[in-house]
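REQUEST FORM: STRUCTURE PREDICTION
Request ID: SP-0412
Submitted by: Lab K.M.
Chain count: 1
Length (residues): 142
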Amino acid sequence: MTDEDAKVTAELLTAAREALEMFHEVHVDDDGALSFQHGEVPCAVQAMRLAEGLTVLSLTCVVAWDLPDDRNLAVSAAERAGQGLFGTLGVVHTDRGMDVTLRYAFPAEGLKPEPLSTLLMLVVSTASQLRSELLAGTGDGA
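STATUS: Completed
RESULT:
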């Protein structure tokens, strides 16, 4: 990463932090990544400069973890993923069950705090809603 890349990504992460702080307490990690909780959903934000003029924010929300490894639940999550405009669902099968994440990456360079916060809140609100739906389907509190 060049000094220019580092500067641009740092500026974008600062803008994202300011946008998120309108709604959440935000933690800045040692590498500059941001983390916060939206309800019971932990989230992380990173910035990457893919090319000059194309710097993206990547938002990852851990929707649920250790869910029962149930085929119907996985199908339900997959169907829900197809309905979403803001993010891609991932289902990972582990020894303890299923983990579900929601990821969204978008070009964010030059966005002002208000539209940036709106876009971020659309994604995390989707993650929280999905968490509620998945947990209602399992009767679990994971």
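NOTES: The mean pLDDT is 88.
Reviewed by: T.R.
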